[in-house]
C-alpha cells in the first residue's frame, strides 16, 4: 500500500513532463492526472448521492477508463478504505469544520472523507495527501471550494487517527456502543444489534462485538466455490488459489481478479463465501427420511446457493427447482445452474409467498430470505449507512411468509433450511420461533450437527441454530436453522 501511494505521489522524471490537464498516451480521451483519486471520488459521490453500489460501480469505472494494475489497486483501496471508516472520518471532520457536516456540499464531503482517509489510515505523506486531494477538489468543485477542502484537511492532519478518536469518541466505560460506533465506524444501532446477536451486554465492555466490528473493516479475501462435478479445489489451487478453511468446495484468492481463472470463466467455479457454501451443504446432509428427488430453492437470485445445490442434487440423481421473484435475477440463476451434472437445475420466476408449485412435494427446501445483509458488511461497506433501525422490522413479515411457504412446500419427513445473511435476532430467531409457535408439525434440528467440521457454530436457544461470524470463522455472518416436517 505505502509503495503504491508513494509511487503515485512521486514527481515525474525529468524529460517526462505529463501533458497539461492530464497524461496522454497518444490516443483516446485525455486521462486525469491522478486517475485513482478521481475514480475513488466519483464512486464515493455516486454512493452518497444516488445510492450506487461500490462493488458494481468501481469495476465498471475502472474498465471504462482503461485502468488496471497499480492505479486500479490504489483506486480500490481509496474507495473501500474511505467507505469502511466513513463514520470515524465523519466524527473527525465534524470537529474540523466550523459548521455541521450535514451542511457541507454533497460534492465536497466525499473529498473531505477521501483526504481524511489518506491522512489517517495510509502512509501517504500528509503534504502529498492534502495537495493531491486539493488538486482534485480544484478540478471537481472549483478553486473557491478547494480552499475550504485545504483548510479542513490541514486541521485533520494535525493529529493521527488514535489521537483523533481519543478526542471525538465517547469514553468506552461510559458509553461502550457509542465508543465502538465511532472507533470502528458503524452506526450505533448496528453495534447494539450485533452485540445482542452475540449475547453481549454493555456492562461487559462488548469485547466480542469489537472483534466483529474490526473484522468488518478488514478487506475480505475472495472465496471461490468449485462446483461439484464440474471442477475441484485442486483445479483452483493449481490456478493459484489456496484451499478453503472448512468447505470441501472452497478456495481463496488473496488478490487478483477471479475472472482470470479459467474455471470461473467457464462457470465450473464461482465466487461464493464459504458460509454460503456450508449452509447449502448442511441442507444436503440432512437425512430426508425417504425419497430424495425433489429439491427447491425458494429465493434463488442471483444463484450462488442454487448453483451449488444443483450440482449436489445432480450428483445424487435429484433435481433442483430454483425460484426467484425478479425475472432479471432469475436469468442470473439460470446461468448459475447451467450445465449442472445431469442437467439437474430448473429455474422459474415465481413469488415464494404465492407459489405455483403444489404443497408438500419437496424433499429439501432452502429459503435464503431477503434480509438486511448485516452479515455481509465486510463486502458491502456502504450498506451499513443505508440500513435503518426499522429495516429488520420491515422485512420480518416477508421472512415469516416465506418460511411458512417453505415448510408448506416440504413433504412430511422432509426438511427446510431457513437462511439469512444477517445475524440480527429479529430476522433469525424471532422468525423461526414465530413459525414454530404457530405450527405443531415442525421439529427444529440441531443445525451445527450437520457441519461438524466448523467449530463454535451452535447459537440461539439450546444451541439449535448455526451462526457463522466473520471474526470467528472468517466468513459472512450467515444464519441457518433446519426444520423437519413431522411425519404423521
Ligand atoms: C438473500 S437473496 C438470495 C441469495 C441466493 N440464495 C444466493 O445464494 O445467491 C434473496 C432473494 O430473494 C428474492 N425474493 C424476494 N422476495 C421474494 C419472493 N417473495 N419470492 C421469491 N424470491 C424472492 C430476492 O429478489 C433475492 O434475489
UniProtKB/TrEMBL annotation:
Residues 1-36 are annotated as: Disordered. The active site is at residue 421. Residues 198-486 form the SAM-dependent MTase RsmB/NOP-type domain. GO terms for biological process: regulation of DNA-templated transcription; RNA methylation. CDD domains: AdoMet_MTases. S-adenosyl-L-methionine binds at residues 299-305, 324, 351, 368. Residues 7-19 have a biased composition (Basic residues). It holds the Pfam family NusB. InterPro entries: MeTrfase_RsmB-F_NOP2_cat, MeTrfase_RsmB-F_NOP2_dom, NusB-like_sf, NusB_RsmB_TIM44, RCMT, RsmB/NOL1/NOP2-like_CS, SAM-dependent_MTases_sf. GO terms for molecular function: RNA binding; RNA methyltransferase activity. Keywords: Methyltransferase, RNA-binding, S-adenosyl-L-methionine, Transferase. PROSITE patterns: NOL1_NOP2_SUN, SAM_MT_RSMB_NOP. Belongs to the class I-like SAM-binding methyltransferase superfamily. RsmB/NOP family. This is rRNA cytosine-C5-methyltransferase.
Amino acid at each position: 500500500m505505502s509503495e503504491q501511494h508513494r509511487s503515485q505521489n512521486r514527481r515525474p522524471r525529468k524529460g517526462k513532463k505529463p501533458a497539461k490537464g492530464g497524461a496522454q498516451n497518444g490516443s483516446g480521451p485525455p486521462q486525469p492526472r491522478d486517475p485513482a483519486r478521481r475514480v475513488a471520488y466519483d464512486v464515493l459521490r455516486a454512493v452518497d448521492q444516488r445510492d450506487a453500489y461500490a462493488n458494481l460501480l468501481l469495476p465498471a469505472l475502472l474498465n471504462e477508463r482503461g485502468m488496471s494494475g497499480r492505479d486500479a489497486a490504489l483506486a480500490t483501496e481509496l474507495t473501500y478504505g474511505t467507505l469502511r471508516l466513513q463514520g470515524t472520518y465523519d466524527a473527525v471532520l465534524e470537529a474540523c469544520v466550523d459548521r455541521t457536516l450535514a451542511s457541507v456540499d454533497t460534492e465536497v464531503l466525499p473529498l473531505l472523507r477521501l483526504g481524511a482517509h489518506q491522512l489517517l489510515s495510509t502512509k501517504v505523506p500528509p503534504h502529498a495527501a492534502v495537495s493531491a486531494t486539493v488538486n482534485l477538489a480544484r478540478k471537481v468543485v472549483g478553486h473557491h471550494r478547494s480552499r475550504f477542502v485545504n483548510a479542513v484537511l490541514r486541521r485533520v492532519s494535525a493529529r493521527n487517527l488514535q489521537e483523533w478518536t481519543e478526542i471525538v469518541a465517547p469514553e468506552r466505560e461510559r458509553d461502550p456502543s457509542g465508543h465502538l460506533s465511532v472507533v470502528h465506524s458503524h452506526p450505533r444501532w448496528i453495534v447494539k444489534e450485533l452485540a445482542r446477536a452475540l449475547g453481549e451486554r454493555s456492562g461487559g465492555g462488548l469485547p466480542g462485538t469489537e472483534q466483529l466490528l474490526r473484522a468488518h473493516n478488514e478487506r475480505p479475501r475472495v472465496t471461490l466455490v468449485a462446483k461439484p462435478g464440474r471442477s475441484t479445489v485442486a483445479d483452483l489451487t493449481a490456478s493459484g488459489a489456496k484451499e478453503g478453511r472448512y468447505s470441501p468446495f472452497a478456495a481463496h484468492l488473496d488478490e487478483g481478479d477471479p475472472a482470470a481463472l479459467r474455471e470461473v470463466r467457464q462457470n465450473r467455479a464461482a465466487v461464493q463465501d464459504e458460509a454460503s457454501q456450508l449452509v447449502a451443504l448442511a441442507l444436503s446432509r440432512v437425512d430426508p427420511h425417504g425419497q430424495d428427488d425433489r429439491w427447491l430453492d425458494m429465493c434463488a437470485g442471483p444463484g450462488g446457493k442454487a448453483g451449488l445445490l444443483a450440482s449436489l442434487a445432480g450428483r445424487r440423481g435429484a433435481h433442483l427447482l430454483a425460484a426467484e421473484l425478479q425475472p432479471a435475477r432469475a436469468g442470473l440463476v439460470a446461468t448459475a445452474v447451467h450445465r449442472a451434472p445431469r442437467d439437474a437445475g430448473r429455474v422459474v420466476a415465481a413469488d415464494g409467498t404465492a407459489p405455483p408449485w403444489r404443497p408438500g412435494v419437496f424433499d429439501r427446501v432452502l429459503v435464503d430470505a431477503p434480509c438486511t445483509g448485516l452479515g455481509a458488511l465486510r463486502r458491502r461497506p456502504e450498506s451499513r449507512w443505508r440500513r435503518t433501525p426499522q429495516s429488520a422490522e420491515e422485512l420480518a413479515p416477508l421472512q415469516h411468509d416465506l418460511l411458512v411457504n417453505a415448510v408448506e412446500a416440504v413433504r412430511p419427513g422432509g426438511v427446510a433450511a431457513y437462511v439469512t445473511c444477517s445475524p440480527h435476532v429479529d430476522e433469525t430467531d424471532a422468525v423461526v420461533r414465530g413459525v414454530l409457535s404457530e405450527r405443531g408439525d415442525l421439529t427444529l434440528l440441531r443445525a451445527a450437527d450437520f457441519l461438524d467440521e466448523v467449530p463454535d457454530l451452535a447459537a440461539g436457544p439450546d444451541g439449535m441454530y448455526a451462526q457463522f461470524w466473520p471474526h470467528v470463522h472468517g466468513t459472512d455472518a450467515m444464519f441457518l436453522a433446519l426444520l423437519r416436517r413431522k411425519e404423521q
